[in-house]
Structure formats: C-alpha cells, structure tokens
Amino acid sequence: MSHPKTPQTKHDIHPLILDRWSARSFSEKSISEETMEGLFEAASWSASSMNEQPWEYIYAEKGTDAFHKMVECLMDGNQPWAKNGSHMLLSLAKRKFEYKGRENRHHMHDVGAANTTLLMQAAQNDIYGHMMGGFHMDKTLEAFGIDPAEHEIACFIVLGYLDAPEKLGAPFHEREIAPRDRKPVSAFTKKLS
C-alpha cells in the first residue's frame, strides 16, 4: 500500500520495507487476536544465532489494565499518542542460550531482527507499529516481574491501524507528516578490495 510517507528510493526496494514506518496516529479499530498470532508467527521465522530464538513478547490490548500499565511505563513524550494504539508489546531478549546456559552475545541483534520481521508482517496487514526506547527501565522491570539477569528489555512496540495525522497535537502532528529520509548508502558502507 502506497501512502504519503512512502519514500522515493534510488533502487527498487520491496514495498513491505518501504511501507514500514513509525506511525503515531492510530484509529479505534482493534487488531484481532488471530492477526496478532500471525504477527508473532512471522517474528518466529527470523534468523537467530544457533536457532535459539531468544525473543519473548508480553502484550496487551487497549482497554485492559495491562495495556494501561504498559503506557504508564513509557516516557512522557510517548504516552500521549501510544495510548491510542490497539496493542502494546514489550519485547524481551533472553540473555543466555538454553544449551548449557552460556551467554548469548547475539540476543539483542536477534530480537531486533524478530521485531523488524513482525513489523513488516504488520505492514502487509495495513497495521503500523512504533518501537519505543523511551521508557522507564526500573518501573518496567518491576511492573512485569522481569529478572534483568535473565532478560534484557529491547523496547516497547505499539501497534494499530493508521488514522489521520490531524488527530495529533504538536509536536507529534508535524513528525507524522514530515518526509522520511535516510543516510545515503555511501555514508555507512565501505567496499574493500
């Protein structure tokens, strides 16, 4: 689906990649449980070191106490718009391999891959997500009984169907309509010979 935030690219990039963007304006429409399960199944097919699949998700639907508790863990700059999403996810990474309990130094990399896969599957379903690193760590660990020796919090993710940017106040409205941009490929690649 093409939308005003679809960027112009130099090369032919898959539409699912271009359609994934961090929206802030969400409609009242709820994501079905079956669709949520499909998003999690998509995440499960991400690559991971030793096929460990170190990702775990805690999630809640809007209108529940758990959803409200998740919103309360967010920084003030995320709460005003994130509270309008259909679902809130807490993305966790298991720190150790199940085999022999060794440290998995790739745990956050692998969870990031799973989150991106989940968001591309969401885009396929016209669902938008916004990953958030702006949250209160200690409050989140306590609220959800997370042992930081066992799990590292990757981020919160809010999911929902898109709504008009006009429903957002400043400064979120301006961010919602601002063009997307990226560094040129030459800025982050180095070809060796």
Can you walk me through this structure?
- 32% of the residues lie in helices and 17% in strands.
- The protein is an alpha+beta fold and 193 residues long.
- It starts with 14 loop residues before the first helix and ends in a 16-residue tail after the last helix.
- Helix 2 packs across helix 5 (107-124).
- The radius of gyration is 17 Å and the shape is globular.
- Strands 1-2-4-3 form a four-stranded antiparallel beta sheet.
Task: Summarize, please.
With 193 residues, this protein is α+β, with helices and mostly antiparallel strands.
CATH class annotation: Alpha Beta
Mean pLDDT: 94
Per DSSP E runs of 2 or more residues, the count of β-strands stands at 4
Strand content: 15-25%
Oligomeric organization of the protein chains: single chain
- Our count of domains comes out at 1
Give the end-to-end Cα distance, rounded to a whole number of Å.
40 Å
**Widest beta sheet: strand line-up:** 1-2-4-3
Largest sheet: 4 strands, antiparallel
- CATH topology type: NADH Oxidase
CATH architecture: 3-Layer(aba) Sandwich
Low-confidence runs: none
CA-atom Rg in angstroms: 17 Å
As a percent range, the share of helical residues equals 25-40%
Global outline:
globular
* CATH H level, superfamily name: NADH Oxidase
User: H/E element string?
Assistant: HHEHHEHEHEH
Structural class: alpha+beta
The number of distinct helices, counting runs of at least 4 residues, comes to 7
Features:
193 residues, alpha+beta, NADH Oxidase, four-stranded antiparallel sheet, 4 strands
